[in-house]
Amino acid sequence: MTLRTRLTAAFLLLVLVPLLVAGVLVFALLPREVARLQAENLTSSAALAVSSIEERCSRVVSAAATAARAAGQPGAALGPALTRLVEVEAVSGVQVLDAAGRLRAGAGSEPAQQAPQCTAGAVARTPTGGQLVVTQQLRSADGEPAGSVVAALDLDDAWVRGLGARAGRADVVLFADGEPVAASATVAPALVRAALSELGRLVERDGQVAVAVPSAPGSSSGALVAQAARLDLRTAQMLYPLLVVGAGVLAAVIGAGLARATTRPLEELGSAASRVAGGDLATTIPVRSRDEVGRLAQSFNVMTEELRVHVEALERSGQQLRAGVGRLGDALSGTHDLDRILAVVLETARATTGARSGAVLMGGAVADELVLSVGHELAARGVPEGLRVPVGVGLSGEVARTRAPLRGRSGTGPGERAPAPGEPAGVPFVALPLMSSGQVVGVLLLWDRAGDADFTEDDLALLKTFTSQATVAVDNVLLHEEARRLSVTDAMTGLTNYRGFTVTVGKEIERAARFGRPLALLLLDLDHFKLVNDVWGHQRGDAVLVELAARVRAQVRDVDTCARYGGEEFVVVLPETGPAGAVQAAERILAAVRRRPFGDADETSLDVTVSIGVAVFPDHGTTATTLLRRADEALYAAKAAGRDGWQVAPAETPPPQAPPARTLPDVAAEPGLRSS
């Protein structure tokens, strides 16, 4: 038996069996059950209406309790609180009265006065219908009466019509104090009076039946449900045999047609699925109907189209990823330039995710602050070139604080992330931390994706993959820069060491010669420093050197280079400085040394002096060796002149002579070193 035949037979059985069973029920059972079911249905509908009244009463009770708590809070803005309560609890009105019955605050419509409590099953009558009222007494802290809270909820015809819709074809009447107050439709007054006089019993008047159910035992309020008194089955009984025969014939014809219409698309679908499985993603099948089978065919076509688009997108994404990783690998392996690496990281991230704009922020000179290092299309969203973001603030600051990626939309609306001043707002974004040695050194921030689409978890996973490589390279660059810095830095004073000085002075002399600009060298030496070490110890001597380095550094410009030349000797390179400027710098340094003794408050302070030799390019030489030699000669001249001063090298080199001996005077007789 084919599928088409089985479907035809099944359809025929599905139609005839229910019809035959229904016939038995109609002829044997239905006449006896109609009356009983009608009574049960009306009673159930009335009980449902009463339950709805009780549910709305519970809402009024909740509103009254909430208002009572608000009224008991000293200093609370009671009026706005009641207004919000009316909106949230969806009640008609709330009033708070003081102990004398005067109105303290209220919101919404006015509750009925002296109305019975809906918790007792009572519905208050109002000019517009019924109303559920709850009154809750207020007590002061010592238990004395402090007023009351009255909450109410209106029950009008519109609400009763909603009950009628849930009750099916029945009409619903809400009554209070034995009188109707709201109805879903017009019900005969005689039927209403009869039902209200016999609560809980089915009554009949003029072809209509009704049941009235009180909202509570003994209550005069409740709901009444009415409908037609009986169901006329005679026409259905006469037409039933013809219905069965006609339905059987029609079912056979329709079943055969449906079976054919169903199996044909399935055959086409199976064939098309085989072609798709073989790799032909351009396969489609004709859509011949708008039913489930037609939608299945349409869904199959949509599936193959989306599958083709996704496969193409995956291929493009793979190509972009390979190209990006290739660029990233080339950049990471071929440079120690941090800015270039960050630019490649940003460009690769943008190309991979489709972001229009982005930036990399790195840790700045100020602790707990991120500074913009590289960016793309910043002006489109008003991002400043000098963007600075405190750690813990905004998008990138939050990522730096938590060390965890973040994605979403920036802004101040619901579900959005608040950006820091200067960060983009109103756009989708994704941000990831850049780590170095376990610490956050920067943040990669992308925003404004094409089509205003949000960044996905797949984007985040992809960014994590290559930022992990980038952070290794950033770590290497930072370590390389730190190693380079340490190689040209004196460990004790923090100034440039001799190696760094030789590189710097060579470059500065070359620049000065190229542009015809002056250059000055100051060579400093602590007077009688050996005496400091001998008397106070090398640890105190080192402290004096550190303090001297700080004072010298404070007296020169940022473009000047201060270096420890060796031992207690220091050298200062002053670009763009002639003899007069060099002398002024020497005077400032001498004044800074003389200004106060050396040492902390808990140490014995020392009066220390320095001697300074000055040499100027090109007056005293055109090479670093010559300038240093002439500055050294000037230094010896300053010491010979009594120390604690400066000397400028003469324009012409004097005949060589032995330098004056550096003798250490007796501690007691030394005027340049004393305790203070």
State the gist of this model.
This protein is α+β, with helices and mostly antiparallel strands and 676 residues long.
Describe the protein's architecture and organization.
Helix content is 47%, strand content 21%. It is α+β, with helices and mostly antiparallel strands and 676 residues long. The chain folds into 3 domains: 40-231, no CATH class; 355-473, Beta-Lactamase (2-Layer Sandwich), CATH 3.30.450; 498-669, Alpha-Beta Plaits (2-Layer Sandwich). The strands form 4 sheets. The chain has a 6-stranded antiparallel beta sheet, sandwiched between helices. A 5-stranded antiparallel beta sheet has the order 2-1-5-4-3. Strand 3 (124-126) and strand 4 form a beta hairpin. Mean pLDDT is 81; it is low at 658-676. Pfam families: GAF_2, GGDEF, HAMP. InterPro entries: Diguanylate_Cyclase, GAF, GAF-like_dom_sf, GGDEF_dom, HAMP_dom, Nucleotide_cyclase, Rev_trsase/Diguanyl_cyclase. Residues 517-651 form the GGDEF domain.
Number of domains: 3
Judged by helices, strands and strand pairing, the structural class is: alpha+beta
Give the amount of beta strand, in percent. 15-25%
Number of DSSP-assigned strands: 21
Sum up the overall morphology in one term.
elongated
Which runs of at least 5 residues are low in confidence (pLDDT < 50)? 658-676
Characterize the largest beta sheet: strand count, sense, and whether it forms a barrel. Answer: 6 strands, antiparallel
Task: Count the DSSP helices.
Answer: 14
Radius of gyration: 48 Å
Main sheet: strand order = 13-12-11-16-15-14
End-to-end gap: 119 Å
Proportion of helical residues: 40-55%
Mean pLDDT: 81
Domain GGDEF: 517-651
Domain HAMP: 260-312
GO molecular function: diguanylate cyclase activity
GO biological process, one term: signal transduction
